[in-house]
Amino acid sequence: MATKEQQAKRLVIKIGSSTLTDARGGIDESYLAQLAQQVAAVRRAGWEVVVVSSGAIACGLESLGLEGPRPTDLPTLQAAASVGQGLFVSAYGRAFQREGLLTSLVLLTRRDTADRQAYLHARDTMERLLQLGVVPVVNENDTVSVEQIKFGDNDTLAALVACLISADLAIIFSDVEGLFSANPVVDSNAQLIKRVERIDEHVLSIAGDAGTTMGSGGMMTKVRAARVLGIAGIPLVVCSGADPSVLSRIVEGDEVGTLFEAAHPLHEITPRKLWIALGDAARGRIAVDAGAVRALRSEGRSLLMVGAKAIEGSFDEGDIVDICDEAGHLFARGRTSASSDVAELALGRTHDELERNKLLAPLATRPLIHRDELVIFD
User: Fold this and answer.
1) Nearest to residue 154, comparing CAs of 181, 175, 173?
2) What is the per-residue burial (b if ≥16 Cβ within 10 Å, else e) of 196-219?
3) Dihedral angle at the C-alpha atoms of 238, 239, 242, 243, nearest 10 degrees?
4) Which end of the chain is more exposed for a tag (fewer CB within 10 A), N or C?
5) Confidence tier at 224 by pLDDT (50, 70, 90)
6) CA nearest to 174, candidates 201, 141, 211, 199
7) DSSP assignment of 244-313, as one string?
8) Who contacts 172 (Cβ-Cβ below 8 Å, separation ≥6)?
């Protein structure tokens, strides 16, 4: 496999349903033709491109004549995805073929990435497609996805794909210009934030809700994607996709939308840790005390049982869980070495109390999450 230095620059573009569809809810063919032209231009400039796109369900709903509010029941949405997937991929194929580009369809669910080996196979497939000069079009496999295995939004899927292929840049095309200082729909004084160096509590607090009925992700999902991309060293631009030259402008370095910078990571980010950060949905949540926060963030230590102060959800040994401080701020994610039932036995007990109990003594020194299975977000 080629090294990063031997590869062309890599770009992941995420297109949301609200950007790709027209007023009727079908694929906007003129926009797709414009997108293909932009992709062809940046490919000529030396970039390899992967497109992560919504749109299958919207296409299916239109073809089935299901107008009005978007259905919420899973069988209807899956049926619409089944009908729309062919229309969706055909539209991409036609538009890109006119520019001399070959596309492929890559359908993923969390089941495909929750397993470490499946994750690596997905990476290898994507690598080979790029080597063959193909523009992969990635979508969630909504026909078979259920709540337990859904990514939930294609912003998360785009971040996963960017990490899979070690992208140099990720771009999310939206129906908004970027991150604003307040919700621009309700606050006329809201200002576009052009650059975010660090995603802190303030940035998270101003990330608003979804602004349209067609998509499933709002600004919060984009900010969360940016947080994971940042630790992977991948900058993210969130911008409006309406400008016919926006893609070329971004890769040429123009200031467009909101740039979420990728700082040099403070902690080692291995491919396995990226898989932990994005490859599987969190099955629970662990609140830790101030000492554990400091040990994890600043000292590179494992999370011990005695650092846990509260357990939410039910998880098994080997599951992925979120880690937050006692104020509720999520700052890390990791793979547990114990189930929630076992971890709860240690709650509220000191190291000495655990050691004196014959049944609980093994928990005194056993990490709940080993540092090699831990990702720090900030």
Assistant:
1) 173
2) beebeeebeebbbebeeebbbbbb
3) -120
4) N
5) confident
6) 211
7) TTHHHHHHTT---SEEE--PPPSS---HHHHHHHHTS----EEEE-HHHHHHHHHS-PPEEGGGEEEEES
8) 14, 16, 155, 158, 222, 225, 236, 237, 238, 239
Q: What is the DSSP string of 72-122?
A: -SHHHHHHHHHHHHHHHHHHHHHHHHTTT--EEEEEE-HHHHHSHHHHHHH
On the 0-12 / 13-18 / 19+ scale of CB atoms within 10 A, 37 is middle
Sign of the CA dihedral with 155 first, then 158, 162, and 168 last: negative
Alpha-carbon distance of 126 to 157, in angstroms, equals 14
| pLDDT for the residue numbered 70 | 78
Alpha-carbon distance of 265 to 203, in angstroms, equals: 19
234 vs 236: CA distance, rounded Å: 7
Strands 308-312 and 285-288, how do they pair? Answer: antiparallel
Measure the CA–CA gap between 52 and 38, rounded to whole angstroms.
15
Instruction: Report pLDDT digits (tens) over 46-60.
Output: 999 999 988 788 888
Instruction: Read off the pTM.
Output: 0.78
Among residues 52, 90, 55, 45, the alpha carbon closest in space to that of 214 is found at 55
Q: What's the DSSP call for residue 371?
A: G
pLDDT value for 259: 95
What's phi and psi for 361, nearest 5 deg? Answer: -50, -40
Regarding beta strands 258-260 and 308-312, do their DSSP bridges make them parallel or antiparallel, or are they unpaired? unpaired
Whether 99 and 37 have beta carbons less than 8 Å apart is answered as yes
Residues 6+ apart with CB under 8 A from 25: 58, 59, 61, 62, 67, 214
Q: What is the pLDDT of residue 75?
A: 83
Nearest residue to 157 (alpha-carbon basis) of 36, 291, 295, 12: 12
HSE-CB for 263 with a 13 A CA cutoff: 11
Q: How far is Cα 351 from Cα 7, in angstroms, rounded to an integer?
A: 50
